[in-house]
Amino acid sequence: MSSLFVLPPECLLQPFPVPQRLMLGPGPSNVPTRIAAAGAQPMLGPPIMNQVKSGIQYAFQTRNRVTLAVSGPGHAAMDCAIFNSLEPGENESCQWHMWREGAKMNTVVTSAGGYFTNEGIEQINTVVFFLTHGESSTGVVHPTDGIGDLCHKYNCLFLVDSVAALGGTPICIDEQGIDIMYTGSQKVLNAPPGTAPISFSERACQKIFNRRTKPISYFLDMSWLANYWGCDDNFHHTGPVSSFYGLRESLAILAETGLENSWKWHKALAEYFHKGLEEMGLKLFVQDTNARLPTVTTIVAPPGYDWREITGYIMKTYNIEISGGIGPSAGMVLCVGLMGCNSSKANVEKVLEALADALKHCHKSRV
Ligand code: PMP
Asked: Which GO molecular function entries does the Swiss-Prot or TrEMBL record give (predicted)?
C-alpha cells in the first residue's frame, strides 16, 4: 500500500494508441517516417546545429550569420523577433496600444482575403514593420517585393512571419531586404512542432546587439542565443536535440528536392485543387488568383451548411482533418492545408471526394 497522496494516474497505466490521420488542416502536417526516425537517434550535441543552420540559410535564401532554430513553436520565434527588435517606449510618436514589452503597436487592417499595397504600407510610421507572408486564416500570400526597400528608406526593420508559407511559395530574404524572418517546423517542413527557424540581417543585428535595455526574456535573448548557436561552449539552455534531428532531416529533404521545385510543385498542386473545387461548384475565398497561398486553401463556407458538420463528417468518414476559419475568417471558410509531403495529387483527390460526399450527406438548410 503506497503512502503517497497522489496515486499513479490510471490513464498513464494504459498504452496510448495514437490514430493515423491525414492532417490536411492549416498545420501541423503529417511527419514522414524518414523525419520521425531521425528524431529517434541517440543524443549528440552541437555538430548537428551547424547543419541545421546551413539548411535554414538555404530555405530562407540568406547568408545571415545570425541564423538558428529557436527551441519552441512558431510563437516562440515570434516573441524572439519582437522582444529583441523592440525596446520599451519605442514608437513614441504614435498613439498606439502597448505591446507586451512596452513598445507601442499599431495594427493596420485590410478586408479578410485582401492584402496591402506598398503605397498603403509607406504611410505607416513605425520602427519595425511586421507582416505575415502566408496568412493561414485567410489563405492569402502577401506580396513582399519592394517592402524591404521602403522599410529601409525610413530606417525601419522588416519582420516577416513565414510560418505557413516557407518552402511552399517563394521568399528570398537577402534579395528582398527582409531583416528578420521566422517559420515553424510543422508545416511545409513536415517536422514535429517545437523548433522554429529564424534569421536576422546585419541591420537587425546592429539594432539588437546595441540595445539600451535587455530584452524581457532571458530564454529568447538573442545575445545569448547567437552565442549558443555559434557553438562556443556557452551553455544557455538544453536544446531539444531530437527535434533538431527531425528538423535537420526535413531541411535535408528540402535541399534534395530543391527549393524552386518545391515552390513549383506546391503551386501546381494548389491550382489542380482549386480547379477541382470550382468544378464542384465551391468558391475560393481569395478572389485574386495571384494572392492565393499554395499551402493553405480557404474555401467559402458552402451556403446553407454548418461548416462544423462538414469538417466533422470528413473526419469521421475519411479520417481526414480539415478545419474552419480562425480570427478574421471564423465561420466564413473551410481551410485545407497541402504542405510538403501532404501536397500530393492523391491527397487532393481524397479531399475533393470527401468534400463532395460531405455536401451530399450533411444537412443543408434553404438559403
Ligand atoms: N503564424 C502563422 C501564419 C501560423 O499559421 C501559425 C500557426 N498556425 C503561427 C504563426 C504560430 O505557430 P505555432 O503554432 O507553431 O506557435
From this structure: alanine-glyoxylate transaminase activity; L-serine-pyruvate transaminase activity
Specify the ligand 1 atom closest to the Cα of 77.
16
For the segment(s) 33-257, the CATH number from 2.40.37.20, 2.60.120.10, 3.40.718.10, 3.40.640.10 is: 3.40.640.10
Write the pLDDT tens digit of every residue in 99-153.
666 777 888 889 999 999 999 999 999 999 999 999 999 999 999 999 999 999 9
Q: Using a 6 Å CB cutoff, which residues line ligand 1?
A: 26-27, 73-75, 132, 134, 136, 161, 163-164, 184, 193
pLDDT at 289: 97
Neighbouring CB atoms inside 10 A of 92's CB total 9
Pairing status of strand 323-324 against strand 333-337: antiparallel
> Among the CATH numbers 3.90.1150.10, 3.60.40.10, 3.20.20.70, 3.40.50.300, which is that of 258-361?
3.90.1150.10
Torsion of CA 245, 249, 252, 254, to 10 degrees: -130
pTM over the 0.80 mark: yes
CA of 184 to the centre of ligand 1 (A): 7
Question: Of 116, 111, 118, 120, whose CA–CA distance to 132 is shortest?
Answer: 116
